[in-house]
Amino acid sequence: MHFIKFLTVTIIFIILAFLLLFSPSHSLQQQPELTTSLTTTTTNSVMTAGSSSGSNTSNCHTIQLDIEPYSLNEWKINQNQVANDFLDLIEKIQLLINQFIQNKIISSNVRISFAIPRWFNTISINRNKLTKPLSEFILNITDIVIMDYVDSSERAINDAKDELIYGSNLNSFTNSFFLNNKQRKIFIALETMELKDEPMATFYGKTNEYFEKAILDIDNNFKQYSSYSGIAIHYLDSWKILNSIPIINSTAPLRDLYIWNYDFILNETKRNDLLFNYLLNKKANSKIRTIYLESAYLLIEKKIELLNFVNLCKNYSINVELLTGDASWALPNNHKEALKFVDNAIRFLSVVSPPGNDSNSGNPVIDSMSGRKSSNSVTSSHLLAHSFCWDVLLLLFILLLIL
């Protein structure tokens, strides 16, 4: 009797292992809205006309999510649970992107980053029987943009140092248990918008000379950390006011720039005014490295216009990140909304940042699943199915030991 049980469990174990290792495309597909089909040509046919522009190196290969779960009422009720829900979402998205890279749908240079406040390193979260700062849990998975919203370089340096040290340690000791073993990147975002209730959380009201000196101080201090990847300014409209009397010189650090109002790219006059009369002229002195562009609507309704803007920026060595976010996405019932945006972004990136033009960064993406090539589609349920199979295999292994 024991022999029959042993034989049955062994056979099931072998069948599951075979399916997992050699047939990844058998995955569940109950969520078609989260699926990017390799056979779907609609998006490509819409965008291909404007997709060529000189160099093969893409200037659009990053997705940024600004979710901010701490603004939810649920955060006040159960901070630890909402933080874990947020981490679950980050893991889902990073796994999804990794799988698209592995299946040669997008370039291996494609990355995801999450905007987090400067104080996430002060919040201890319990997750899987482990307690540590929320910022460290996030950095174990993905890149971050620290919203280092203060009014001086000294405070900005002090508040972001812990994350930069931790990220740099990760880069020195790449742990194969992490979902993504690319070198961690941390960006420091500075606020320029008027905040009447929090005047010490912004550079609004300061002189442009003061602001530029702060950028230089922060950049010089953080260059020692391998995880440091540059300064970002939040955001265009308020920075233009601060920068009305420009003093940006040729030796000033490059910086990234948030643009939430995407209307300008739909209007040629406004678009040209932004690029040629502001970002590329003496007011910005061509110091804009990357534009973080609100893209949710554009990815659905205005793909050609978005593509043309990306290509225009490429001509002037400006990168474009696909940006959006909503606090409610942190909650499990709304994870699908975040995944939909990522899915739309990946469709776009499959055109502007396809596989085959990757730089040799020496940082291969960890094969967190089977490492096999998928046939037609990759879904979030696909990833969960693999995880479930591994759990079943572990359970069967335990049963074998018991028998």
Characteristics of this structure?
403 residues; alpha/beta; eight-stranded parallel beta barrel; two-stranded antiparallel ribbon
Largest sheet: 8 strands, parallel, barrel
Q: How would you describe the shape?
A: globular
In angstroms, what is the radius of gyration? Answer: 23 Å
Ends distance: 11 Å
Q: What is the overall pLDDT average?
A: 82
> Strand percentage, roughly?
5-15%
The portion of residues assigned to helices is: 40-55%
DSSP E strands, number: 12
As residue ranges, the low-confidence spans are 19-47, 49-53, 360-388
How would you spell out the order of helices and strands?
Answer: HEHEHHEEEHEHEHEHEHEHHEHEH
Which strand order spans the largest sheet, edge to edge or round the barrel? 2-3-6-7-8-9-10-11
